[in-house]
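An instance as discussed:

___
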Amino acid sequence: MSQDQPSRADGAADETPASGTSASEGPADGHPADGHPARGMPGPARTGWRAVVTTRRIVTTVAVIAAIAALVVWIRWPEGEPVRADAAMVTVQSGPGRNEPIELDTTIYVPESATAKDPAPAILLAHGFGGSKASVAADARRLAGQGYVVMTWSARGFGRSGGTISLDDPDYEVNDARALIDRLADRDDVRRDADGDPRVAAVGGSYGGALSLLLAGYDQRVDTIVPQITWNDLSTAFFPESTGAGPADGVFKRSWAGLFFGSASAGGATSVADLAALLGARPDENGEIDPSTVDPSKAEELVQCGRFAPDLCRLYLEAATSGRATPAIVERLRRSSPASVLNRINAPTLLIQGQADTLFPLSEADANARGIAANGTPVSVAWYAGGHDATASTREADRVDEMTLAWLRHYLDETGPAPSDDFSYTTAGAISVRDTRPTTRIYTLDDYRPGSDGDGYRVRLNGISPQPVANPPAGTPAGVSSLPGAGALTSRLASAGIDVPGQFAAYSGVELPRSVDVAGAPTVRLRAASPTGEAVLFLKLYDVDADGRATLPGGSVAPIRLTGLPRSVDAIGTAPLVTVSLPTIGHRFEAGHSIRLVVATADQAYAGPPAPVVYQVSVQANSLQLPQVSPVPVADATGAWLWALAGLLAAVVLGVTTAVLVVRLRRRRQEVAVDSDAAGLPLVVRGLRKAYGDGYLAVRDLSFTVEPGQVVGLLGPNGAGKTTALRMLMGLIRPTGGEILVFGHRIRPGAPVLSRIGAFVEGPGLLPHLSGLANLHRYWQATGRPAEAAHLEEALEIAGLGAAVHRQVKTYSQGMRQRLAIAQAMLGLPELLVLDEPTNGLDPPQIAEMRAVLSRYATNGRAVLVSSHLLAEVEQVCSHVVVMSKGTGVAAGTVAEIVGEGRSVLVEVSDGDRDAALAALTSMPGIALVHPNGRGLVVELAGAERSDVVRELVGAGVGVERLVARRRLEDVFLELVGEGR
């Protein structure tokens, strides 16, 4: 792009960079750079006045926005009342007879409002396995800020507390907690229901969650509990068996058990007295351990077991060696399981379980809920997108906190309204265009259904004939479904899964004609044969999209151990049919997706048979059943709040901008008319048209708007009219019809408002004999603005040229020229940045950095318009898109609106039925748009469901072959600009 340069009296105009990269220099008519002439005022004075007005406007706008934002943040995130924290080592009586003293490291958090005259309810807040009281300090302080007296402590065997880990044993950890309730009952700032009976809740996650359940079973003083991501039966959690055979035939969850044991066995005692007790020794007169009194057998146990109780250590080592659960192991684990006391829990219970949790899956919460509800005790269940395998998002963490607080307000305070007893869960949504992270959708059911015998959706599987699968020697290599303790890596692997060829049988289902919502445990029936008469298998249920990408909901597998099998693989038909309960999930299988059942022989997370063997497996036809539900989507309160805040801030920005424009119009007697409706908008294009003298119509009818904070992609094939539209936007050519408004000012060649635009169109216009730095300096001098307003350091950072910025531009590569040109366009931080193919010549790392630069740039009222052929780049960086075809805008809106999230579907019909389908759907209610696409139709839904579309077409006698969602920008682009359009 070229534009006339301001001439210089010394004839040095040739030293000014060409403006191919920007239109933000001042116009050639002598007006100042802000585009508003001040008659009779000399140049320097005009510049100073302009700086004052600009500074005043910026300061005023920032002050107003900051004040409103601060107010909203204060309302949205109240800090709560002041809290006092008191730490102490306390001695409690524990053990089977509650007569064994032990020191526990405690901290009690007391809100300012809790006094002897106005006592507050109390909360026992327990930490997870491997943690300490420090792990829950932030949660404790937050709850105390809401008016509760909160007691935390390091469980025995952890942190500075004494004793050994007994795994929530009723005689030890549970009695420790009961002793802490006794201490709360003695405090005058804690509300009491009776003498010795404080008003108290038990809250905790994982290890602490099981403790809260066990405590409620053994101590009726507990008024309500909120257990999270915890277990029902520890024996079935570590020895699961999905045919219902029980833990004795279960498959050892090797990786999680090893991590569980290792996280505590490494920790040592923290005092001489504790260490002496563990070694069976006595301290000498100097307070040191007397070596002569050490019990050698106890010393060996300490090395092997750390701070685990010796009996637990021996049982773990036995299980890790054999991979099987003995009756002694099952009995000991069930002693530490809430399943043993569910019939004694009368405290209202809120169960919160993670959907990304292969340690304690959703089925554990289901078992707890049913056992407690059988007593008539109020129970509510909620699943959330998090757990031991993945950290919850801020949105999900806030949801859990809000549910917990609402539950405590009602059942502990007895002041809040009754919380909803609807069951809720979360499903994964589309990838967010803003931050490329998966979005989530929250659903509710009016009653708790998972695990019930509700209506099922049967999936027809293909290839159900027997298939051979090999168990590898020593179980290696094994498939991967999860990596316990690996955090984000686990969640990524869990979403895909890894299956080893030759070690699994796969059965694929037909394409789903409609979306299926699942909340519960799918089931399937299968047979197997094994030369050993026994087989260990792992079943997985994949969701496969239209492009063949598979995800494993929850990252979970269903392990089974089958015995009494036919030893001849040819006799598989005589094997009994067994029903397998697959992992409980909360998931939506979208229309157009399919379901794949995989039966594998080895999984990295479990212990299987070490001997190599080849099994034969087959799945019964039509036996895969999904627990289908009809959930109600929950409005995203956080999203609604953000939209409200955005609207409020936009209103403030628009109001301040409009007020400033009015003042400036009055003071400066602006001659150019301003469209007040568009004054706060960086760009408004209305009915734009450009016809050339030879009759060629380059732009026919183009309309779109670019708002502050947006990064808008201008898309279209070659010849669509994009470059012509950009040249008109820059004032290089005049439109034949319509108008272009920048902040309400109409664009024309030399228009003053062009100073508020930075542009890079039609290649870089740089002076080759000058250095990169000199090009930037010369360009900025040509605008007539102060050097300090150039933001030169930021521009150089954007260019990323390093020492090369001092070299002549003629030595630059194409990519270096491109980066320098873009940095030049950004000098002065113009309010509207227009870039034509900005990533040409850039390598992949530079392209990624450019995405980040543009996203950061579109803030503080600025906006970016990008023209590009790279649709993947546009989809990642742009918030909105405008699609052009043959000189006309064919679509405009957010990326999500254009791509659609289940709203736009592609319907393929039988040969010769397209016209009939078009006629049927055009007149159908709830349809916004129908247009042909090949032998099918693209249908924009506006209230109608996909099932309604199929029903309408079938009723019209149309053969429906396929109905799939359209999600990729590339697909939508090709349909919008194709010849059929």
Q: What stands out?
A: The longest helix spans residues 43-76. The chain has a mean pLDDT of 81. The CA atoms of residues 686 and 703 lie 4 Å apart. Residues 243-338 form one domain.
